[in-house]
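Incident review: delayed structure delivery

Summary: a single-chain prediction request sat in the queue longer than the usual turnaround. Root cause was a stuck worker, restarted by the on-call engineer. No data loss occurred. The affected request and its eventual output are reproduced below so the record is complete for anyone auditing the incident later.

Affected input:
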Amino acid sequence: MFRRILVGVDGSKPALKAVEAAARLAVIHEAELILTHVVQVPAIAEQVIKATAKPGAKPKQVMERLSGEILSAAFCHAEESGLDTGLISTLSTEGDRVKRITEAAQRLKADLMVVGGGIRGQAVGGVAQKLAALAPCPCLIVP
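Output delivered after worker restart:
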């Protein structure tokens, strides 16, 4: 049923739970798993990075490195599920999370989008809600 599953990751525990759930589904369906992280470089983050980074480091480069680390950790989680690593790919992009993830799902013709719910009490996180509302395919929110 699913050929291509897209998972939004941000390094959080809910996102890693989403990776695990998506990877299990990918194993069952022998589907491709695409792990995506959206780099956001708000002005305040740039200032913090400038203040704490090594001399000469550019904020965007630091954020891209961190994005790579987040995707690498997600890749390892997916790999632990037993999914063939040839079926796992990563995508890093920059901009608004909701917009970029929905665009990627549409462009890559994802059959399913999986995200961590960031659930606090009874409420689903705002990003997960927006993704579910705008998804071009079914969206699974993992608590």
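Verification: Residues 4-142 form a domain with the Rossmann fold fold (CATH 3.40.50.620).
Action items: add queue-age alerting; document worker restart procedure.
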